[in-house]
Amino acid sequence: MKAAVLRSSRAALRPCTCRHLVGRSYSSTESSPESKVAILGAAGGIGQPLALLMKLNPLISSLSLYDIANTPGVAADVSHINSRAQVAGYAGEEQLGEALDGSDIVIIPAGVPRKPGMTRDDLFKINAGIVKSLCTAIAKYCPNALVNMISNPVNSTVPIAAEVFKKAGTFDERKLFGVTTLDVVRAKTFYAGKVKVPVAEVNVPVVGGHAGITILPLFSQAAPKSSNLSDDDIKALTKRTQDGGTEVVEAKAGKGSATLSMAYAGAVFADACLKGLNGVPDIVECSFVQSSITDLPFFASKARKEWRGGSLWIGSSFRL
Ligand SMILES: NC(=O)c1ccc[n+]([C@@H]2O[C@H](COP(=O)([O-])OP(=O)(O)OC[C@H]3O[C@@H](n4cnc5c(N)ncnc54)[C@H](O)[C@@H]3O)[C@@H](O)[C@H]2O)c1
Ligand SMILES: O=C(O)C[C@H](O)C(=O)O
Fold it and tell me: What CATH code is carried by the domain that includes residue 114?
């Protein structure tokens, strides 16, 4: 396939030599370090609004938008926004290497979404192959990047990515995250609505995985605490959080699954990764990672993102 590459016309920022944060180079014209973020599946329902939100993130200097088709249009559109990141669109497999080259973070929302009546597992056959080939390219072109996996079923696509990276000799458990932030976003929204507290003040850890009953919101650890939540209230909040994805799939009636709320959640998670890479302390987000907290090899829990001596450290500050 012949594919076009589009770059925004802004001249490339030249990094200067000041390096007060470990391992990051700074541009002479911007106060934040240089960071390249690539989105794979950037022309899709999640990819487009996620590209918009990433373009608004001042920590990003280079935004690489890759899909099998339609990325030149998305990149041209997003590149006109007067924010820092320079945008480049890549379409077609022959441009995947260039899209990934030098990326600090790769976000993957590539793959098919659910339709009513399907489970996330029904997506496995198609999405497993897509994730496998994208991760093979990541191992080749940006083996040190953090990988934020959105494609479903997350409970399977993350272990697939881990196996691909192990085979390539690039696996680092501290750099592979299944994005479960949407579960946290939903739990916060539903809890705030029930308890009648400002949603901006709410925090709810969500552990386990990202499908049905594996999504386990810990309302017992929610902040601010509520003294008048009954067991039935907690059961109902838990069920609504677990069924949040299906609620959207059914409301969209065959036109896909959550895209806008997922783009928001993906942007929140990517921002946490960028801050962690930039040395901001105490950045903690729940995500689905390789884990020794339970007998399961992968488990979503609070993951701390900090740049420690040249590598990202994930602390397991999780308690039941
Ligand atoms: N983790 C979560 O919480 C969460 C939330 C919502 C959706 N999802 C998942 O995200 C995925 C994408 O959802 P969507 O609504 O954006 O779907 P979509 O169909 O709108 O977009 C998917 C995009 O992926 C692209 N694509 C397909 N194969 C590709 C490849 N080999 N390389 C690059 N791009 C490729 C398609 O061209 C399309 O543009 C689905 O698997 C969905 O289940 C996960
Ligand atoms: O439910 C889906 O299929 C998409 C996503 O996993 C979600 O939780 O919204």
Answer: 3.40.50.720
Look at residue 238 and tell me if it is in a domain: no
User: What Å distances lie between residue 41 and 33, 60, 107, 287, CA to CA?
Assistant: 25, 18, 9, 20
**pTM for the full predicted model:** 0.91
Residue whose entry in the numeric block shows the structure tokens 């903690």: 284
Q: Which residue has the higher pLDDT, 294 or 45?
A: 45
Give kind and range of the element (H or E) at residue 264. Answer: helix 260-277
Predicted-complex ipTM score: 0.99
Residue 20 is a catalytic residue? no
Which three-class secondary structure state does DSSP give residue 2? coil
Q: How many CB atoms lie within 10 A of CB 122?
A: 15
285 sits in which H/E element: strand 284-290
Q: Whose CA is nearest to atom 18 of ligand 1?
A: 44
Choose one of 100, 152, 183 to mutate for the ligand 1 pocket test, by most ligand atoms within 8 angstroms of C-beta.
Answer: 152
**Is the Cβ–Cβ distance between 39 and 14 less than 8 Å?**
no
